[in-house]
Amino acid sequence: MIETCSLKTHRRNEMIDITSQVNGVVEKSGIETGLTVVYIPHTTAGVTINENADPDVVHDILLTLERLIPQHDPRFTHAEGNSDAHVKSSLVGPAVTIIVQNRKLLLGTWQGIYFCEFDGPRNRHFNIKVL
Amino acid sequence: MIETCSLKTHRRNEMIDITSQVNGVVEKSGIETGLTVVYIPHTTAGVTINENADPDVVHDILLTLERLIPQHDPRFTHAEGNSDAHVKSSLVGPAVTIIVQNRKLLLGTWQGIYFCEFDGPRNRHFNIKVL
Amino acid sequence: MIETCSLKTHRRNEMIDITSQVNGVVEKSGIETGLTVVYIPHTTAGVTINENADPDVVHDILLTLERLIPQHDPRFTHAEGNSDAHVKSSLVGPAVTIIVQNRKLLLGTWQGIYFCEFDGPRNRHFNIKVL
After folding, report:
1. What is the pLDDT of residues B72-122, one digit of tens each?
2. A:B CB pairs within 8 Å
3. Which chain A residue has the Cα nearest residue B65?
4. DSSP per residue, C27-65
5. Would you say A35 and A128 are in contact if contact means Cβ atoms under 8 Å apart?
6. pTM of the model
7. CA distances to A25, A131, C87 from A1, in Å
């Protein structure tokens, strides 16, 4: 079973908590123990796991990525003006694999799953496979 | 079968070789061919695979991460003072997936698995799933 | 079934599209739905997923990585002169997991799989597991 979820992003750089959507798919699958893969089929977005409590953590992560990889570099040759987003996508990564136990994601207490938008706002989607 | 291993870290930034613990779990599982996922349930730590021979490689990786992402940035808003650790956690990643062949991790000759501490010292743990 | 593919890299930093090789292994496996793991058994290379249309994207990704992580840093202690490649390997990552649907990789329209060489030219290989 592969589930596809849609979402709309609202800023150029944004991290959106998708934990409850992923947990919903895991519960629906009825799988007791196994793995879940969350996969992003875009080249200017990614997925990561990080703190779900204080939104300032997300702020500081996005700030640091923008400091390290500014949108414009005079040496960039890709004409679309979003090379920074492609770099961030490869550094954060297109997929996360999470262990499933007792029909639930085995996340740490403070962990949430985040869809990472690096070239929004856009209509996006992601795929979830439980096995 | 999901195994949980504990470890104690001793410095703020540290990479600890956990290859033998992971290999032990793989051998115990009796699984001939498949996958192993090592998952870190913390938001200021991560897991990576890198050289297991010369400890200077680990030194240079941690040095570079600290140069790129210093602990303090006047624009950080997260009050705990460990935003750098959250960023490193997302860049290094919370999980690695390794192929299993003949009841062993199919690692390259020079590869070891490292628990990456970015906000130690702390008591930590990680989960291993073989399937 | 685990397949091993070989490739030859030609520059110190290079991203080589291996999508067709991975898709070939998936089709040959006959597996309808599941996961594919591409695993790099080297500590100065990695694997990522990014745009497969405009080669300037690859140019800008490699440029940014070289800007952030130059080959030489007077504080590096690893004597082989390739510490930068080890750092890039851990940031980009040694493995990607992709969902398989209808005997094909469920990649986004613009996504290709890239072997990332960071210390070439060298003879390299990578492993593919479909399950």
Report:
1. 999 999 999 999 999 999 999 999 999 999 999 999 999 999 999 999 999
2. 91
3. A68
4. HHHT-SSEEEEEE---SSEEEEEEESS-HHHHHHHHHHH
5. no
6. 0.98
7. 10, 8, 36
Phi (first) and psi of residue C18, to 5 degrees: -115, 15
Which H helix or E strand runs over C129? Answer: strand C123-130
Average pLDDT, chain A: 97
Of C60, C92, C99, the CB nearest to A83: C60
In chain A, which ranges are continuous DSSP H helix? 19-29, 55-68, 83-92
Q: Helix, strand or coil for residue B34?
A: strand
Contact check, Cβ <8 Å, C99/A127: yes
In this prediction, residue B123 carries a pLDDT of: 98
- What is the residue type of C78? H
- CA A63, A66, A67: angle at the middle one, nearest 5? 85
CB-nearest partner of C63 from A37, A75, A129: A75
Q: Per-residue pLDDT tens for C97-130? A: 999 999 999 999 999 999 999 999 999 999 999 9
Q: Of B37, B48, B49, whose CA–CA distance to B128 is shortest?
A: B37
Q: If you average pLDDT over every residue of chain B, what do you get?
A: 97
User: Which tokens hold the place of A72?
Assistant: 């414009």
Q: Residue C124: beta bridge partners?
A: C7
> What is the count of residue pairs from A and C with beta carbons less than 8 Å apart?
92
Which of B110, B32, B25 has its CA nearest to residue C129?
Answer: B32
The helix, strand and coil proportions of chain B, stated in percent and rounded to the nearest 5, come to: 25, 35, 35
Alpha carbon B47 to its chain centroid, in Å, reads: 2
Residues A84-131 pLDDT 10s = 999 999 999 999 999 999 999 999 999 999 999 999 999 999 999 999
Q: Is the pLDDT of residue A14 over 90?
A: yes
